[in-house]
Amino acid sequence: MKFEFKPSDYNLSFREYLKYLNITSPVITLYLKTITAPTLILAFSLITYILSEDYRYLPYLIPFIIIFSALLLLLFLLIIKLRRKKAIKNTKLLCDIESTFYFTIEDGYLIRENEFTFLKTKLSEVKSIKLLKHGLILSIENAKLSPFIPKAALPIALEEFLSLLINENSSLIVLDEFKRLKKKSKRLYAILVFTILLSFVASFFIGKYNFKRYPLIPNSDLIKQNDNTYLYENEDIGISLNFPSNWENKFGIEEKPDRINVYYLANGKQSHDTTLLFSIRGLGAIFDNLTLNVIKTEGMYIFIGPTKIDLKNGLKEYIELYNDIEKIKIKENEYYHI
Amino acid sequence: MYCYKLTDSADFEMTYKKYIKKALLKGSLILVSVINIFMFLLSILVLKSLELQMEILSSIITLTLLLEFFIFLISYRNECKKLLATVPNNEVNISFDEEGVYFESHDISRHVKWKAVSNAIIDKDSLRLHYKLIGLPGNFFYLKFFDVESEELIKDIEKYIKVRRIK
Predict the structure, then answer these.
(1) Residues near A335 by beta carbon (within 8 Å), at least 6 away in sequence
(2) Does B88 touch chain A (CB under 8 A)?
(3) What is the pLDDT of residue B7?
(4) A29 inside 8 A of chain B by CB
(5) Do B116 and A95 touch (CB under 8 A)?
């Protein structure tokens, strides 16, 4: 049996062959094994970390990300399609792309020749045949050779060609590399998609539940007065405060050795929106003028509040409470010793 | 015609092992380093532009690098074992003439014309022939496993092609 072909006439199969040689080379195999898992972990960590900062917008971001990814994929497929159509020519690295390869299979021998090389081997030396989508590779392991034949260049049907070689060499192994690699890449894509989806879910929950929690005293622990106001006494500093009745379930108190911090609690519980309403400090206390400003001074104490707030929920309520700070008066504690 | 004797000697196996390990390590380390630098710069760019914390970035990168290191060690060992298991066990007769290089071994004969040889390199104790051919990237030979003195062999090649010597 004799047949001939020019690799440049079989664009698709030749590209597929080069790609196969590349991805199955030991260096690339080792490289891919090394970077796959760490890259997935890095992608997961970065996506989770970045999205968790803005977890509230995630439901709006996901459709945008899906559309963006789909567009990117389409662009990628378009580039591949255009590239596949591009004719292949001789390069500095490969000089026999445009040359004609002559194949002869007879008397138990395989001969491949062109203007640059000649190869003659017993068919028994062909250890395996690797099937790709558009071509096949004869693997002659002893000589580290991999002659390539496009399926479309075969003068007979592929099955007939394979059985002819198997008749000559009963130990010949036929490997469907196309199926194997397709399965492998499908698995990799599935893992990638799963990782991205998992990072979306993780970023939402981490974003939602990962916020600074203060050791706050809730208003339920305070003394409710007859006029429905809440009395807070600080024995260490020796002062008392009366919180208005409309502040019920909207604030929490943090006690520090040198100050009292009062925080706004959106929906009555600690969250990302827990924001400082005011802080009571001694008159001579030093604080950062850029982030805090003086609301009022009372006796030996000053009320200071934030210069800037970043509230996603309850801004209106926060302002209402903030405006009430003027009404909150400091009383020096009076103790009766028996 | 020169005879190049493969794997029958334990000496060859040792030398070949060294070559494979070196070649594999060099190529894969270059690729892994390139992708690492790219990922590192990309991560910094993203985190800087979003004004996020650098501590978290450094933890993620350290974890990734550690993981990469361990996976690389394991995969490198396995890949070396796999490659060394496929060392051909035969003799090759090599000859040169005006046309090109001829390789004759049991049941396989090959001929590569000089116009398809991109480089002939003598690197310390080895001869490398690089080709511009589909599916045949090159041949590697240790000079000491030829049945002639290396200088004699090199002189013969130099009659037909320029040999680059790397010291």
Answers:
(1) none
(2) yes
(3) 56
(4) yes
(5) yes
- B23 CB-near residues (< 8 Å, 6+ apart): none
B167 Cα to chain A: minimum distance (Å): 25
pLDDT digits (tens, 9 = 90+) for A217-273: 988 889 888 888 899 998 888 889 989 999 998 999 999 888 999 999 988 889 888
Whether residues B95 and B116 share a domain: the answer is yes
Output the CA–CA distances (angstroms, integers) from residue A93 to A102, A112, A147, in the order listed: 21, 20, 17
Both B80 and B97 in one domain: the answer is no
What are the structure tokens assigned to B165, written together?
């010597």
Q: CA-CA distance, A104 to A115, in Å (whole number)? A: 15
Q: What is the DSSP string of B81-150?
A: HHHHHT---SEEEEEE-SSEEEEEETTEEEEEEGGGEEEEEEETTEEEEEEEETTEEEEEEEGGGBSS-H
Do B57 and B99 lie in one domain? The reply is: no
Residue among B164, B161, B20, B156 nearest B87 (CA): B20
The mean of the pLDDT values for chain A is 88
CB pairs under 8 A between A and B: 141
Q: Is the pTM of this model over 0.90?
A: no
Which residue of A95, A117, A145 is in closest CB contact with B111? A117
- Domain limits for position B115: 91-166
Averaged pLDDT for residues A188-203: 91
**Confidence at residue B44, expressed as pLDDT on a 0 to 100 scale:** 76
> A198: which 2 tokens?
């998992």
Q: Of A295, A311, A291, which Cα lies nearest the Cα of A303?
A: A295
Specify whether the CB–CB gap between A324 and A230 falls below 8 A. Answer: no
Task: Give the 3-state secondary structure of residue A10.
Answer: coil
| Domain count for chain B | 2
Per-residue model confidence (pLDDT) at position A69: 87
Whether the CB-CB separation of A236 and A257 falls below 8 Å is answered with yes
Q: How far is residue A244 from each of residues A117, A225, A306, measured CA to CA in Å?
A: 96, 10, 20
Q: Which two tokens stand for residue A93?
A: 């690295």
